[in-house]
Design brief:
The structure holds two protein chains of two kinds. In chain A, strands 1, 2, 3, 4, 5, 6 and 7 form a seven-stranded mixed sheet that branches. Chain A has a single domain, classed as Peroxisomal Thiolase, Chain A, domain 1. Chain A is built from eight helices and seven strands, in the order E-H-H-H-E-H-H-H-E-H-E-E-H-E-E. Chain A is an alpha/beta fold. Chain B contains four helices and no strands. The relative contact order of chain B is 0.19. The chains are: A alpha/beta, B mainly alpha. At the A-B interface, helix 2 and helix 5 of A face helix 2 of B.
């Protein structure tokens, strides 16, 4: 297969939340390796979001709705691509336990168990009638989200929001985690991306050497985007997908 | 013995808990306030949720949406009246 040409995009804005990290300045310090996020379980408050809708969001959903409604990144009708490896896995597991023990499930919980439900809540609150794409790409969510965003921008979207969100694995699923750290993050962040050339997503044969065995996580991607000193990030150990800053190449 | 007022209060607490209505207290819901539409603002998924919850808690089986169902869910008082007359537990 021939190498794909570079897909350009520019970062117009961002908003991020994880326990203990909320202010943009704190995230910039984090991106430079200055602070570690705390492992807490309390979701953020959603005071500005309609109560009748926010009551349906669970841990991951509340984090997602929080970053989608920050005043520093106003929503003006952009299409949304949302990426989550497991979605609201706590809700999904709760439904399975309820089904096993009682033989029926909560209609409300069931209705929210589809992967795009949180994005749908946001669209309902904003009365937005624009495309919403929900992706679950295993460990390669960062790459899949960027590919989808780049494809939509190349197709004329102009500007869109790329949302990443995750919640910790339920205790019962911990034995399936790949490592002690795997599945422990609770975060959400949204990137406002526009057609442009600040960054280039490319499957570049010249730089396809498998320099890393680790898949870049969405938080690795965010750290790269917020850290201008970094030239490029390899997104996957397979193939040569990288995201590069314009005018720079992978070292 | 529990009075009708006690049961209405109990129904309000049940609605709030079943539907995860944060920031809403029983005092915020008038006895005769409409539960759906312009009143409390509940929707069709909420009516299903309440139906399942009423079955578990009071042993009631409420049929799918009919004119009678709308009357049962009209207000906290109407729902309490129905529960009082039909509960099996």
């Amino acid at each position: 297969m021939s190498a794909a040409g570079p897909l350009g995009m520019s970062l117009r804005g961002w908003s991020a939340w994880t326990p203990g990290l909320t202010a943009p300045a704190a995230w910039l310090t984090w991106a430079r390796g200055g602070v570690a996020a705390r492992r807490e379980t309390a979701p953020p408050a959603l005071g500005e979001f309609p109560p009748l809708l926010r009551r349906r969001a669970d841990r991951m959903g509340r984090a997602a709705l929080h970053v989608l409604t920050r005043p520093e990144l106003p929503y003006t009708g952009q299409a949304i691509v949302m990426c989550s490896r497991l979605g609201e896995i706590g809700r999904s597991f709760g439904l399975q336990k309820e089904l096993a023990s009682e033989g029926s499930v909560s209609p409300q919980q069931f209705g929210m168990s589809v992967h795009h439900a949180i994005g749908g809540l946001f669209m309902m609150a904003k009365k937005a009638r624009v495309p919403l794409t929900a992706l679950a790409a295993g460990e390669e969510g960062a790459l899949a989200g960027l590919q989808e965003a780049a494809a939509q921008l190349a197709d004329g979207a102009g500007i869109l929001w790329l949302l990443f969100c995750e919640e910790p694995l339920p205790t019962e699923y911990r034995s399936f985690a790949a490592s002690p750290e795997d599945g422990t993050d609770h975060y959400a962040f949204v990137l406002e991306l526009a057609a442009g050339d600040e960054f280039r997503l490319a499957k570049d044969a010249e730089h396809a050497a498998p320099a890393t065995r680790r898949v870049a996580s969405p938080l690795d991607l965010l750290a790269f985007l917020l850290c201008p000193s970094d030239d490029a990030i390899r997104l996957s150990p397979r193939g040569g997908w990288t995201l590069c800053r314009a005018g720079r190449k992978l070292a | 013995m529990a009075t009708q007022e006690d049961l209405i209060h109990e129904i309000k607490v049940f609605i709030i808990e079943a539907l995860n209505m944060e920031d809403v207290t029983p005092e915020d819901i008038g006895d005769d306030d409409s539960l759906f539409g312009e009143g409390l603002g509940l929707d069709s998924i909420d009516s299903l949720e309440l139906g399942v919850g009423l079955q578990k808690r009071y042993g009631l089986k409420i049929s799918a949406e009919t004119e009678e169902t709308r009357k049962i869910f009209a207000s906290a008082r109407a729902l309490a009246d129905y529960v009082a007359a039909n509960r099996t537990r």
